[in-house]
Amino acid sequence: xxxxxxxxxxxxxxxxxxxxxxxxxxxxxxxxxxxxxxxxxxxxxxxxxxxxxxxxxxxxxxxxxxxxxxxxxxxxxxxxxxxxxxxxxxxxxxxxxxxxxxxxxxxxxxxxxxxxxxxxxxxxxxxxxxxxxxxxxxxxxxxxxxxxxxxxxxxxxxxxxxxxxxxxxxxxxxxxxxxxxxxxxxxxxxxxx
Length: 193
Known about the structure:
Blueprint (H helix, E strand, L loop, with lengths): L2 E5 L9 H15 L3 E4 L5 H11 L5 E6 L14 E5 L2 H11 L2 E4 L4 H15 L7 E4 L6 H12 L11 E4 L2 H9 L16
Parallel strand pairs: 1-2, 1-5, 2-3, 3-4, 5-6, 6-7
C-alpha cells in the first residue's frame, strides 16, 4: 500500500483520544512510507491525521471542494492540496489516488464517505480494503447495526468480509496488507439490463 485515504471528522469530538489516535495514525503512515489522502482540512480529527503525517516527514494530499475551503479551513501545509467542484468529485479522486481506505471517528460526512466506499466494494467497483479504526469502541453500535441488517436480510453475511476492523493501528494496517477482496456475487446479469 503506497497511499491510504482516511475519512474522518473536521470536529475534534468530546474525547482527546480521537485526535491523539488520528495523529498517531498519521505518524505511523509517515514511518511506513505510506502517503495520506484525506479531506484537506486543518481542523479536528482531519487536521490531526495530516499533522501526524507532515510533522513526521510524510506526504499528505488533501482533496477539498472549493466551497468548503473556508468552512473547513484548508490545510495549507500539505504536500498537495487538490481543489474540486463537488463532493462526488472529491470522493472519486480520493478513491482513485488510494490503495486502501481507513475510517476514523466522524459524523454524517464521514459515514457517507465510508458507506459509499463500502458499497462500491460490495458492487465490485474496487478491491481495496475498507477499514475502520474503532477507537475506544466508537463504531461498536454501527457494527451491531450491520449485524442487524444481516439478520433481517438486508446485507449478505459474506459482505461483512468486506470490512477490516481493529482498535489498534498496527494491527489494522497489517490486516489491510493481507486483505484479499472476497468474490462478489453478480447482482445483475446482462440480460436484466
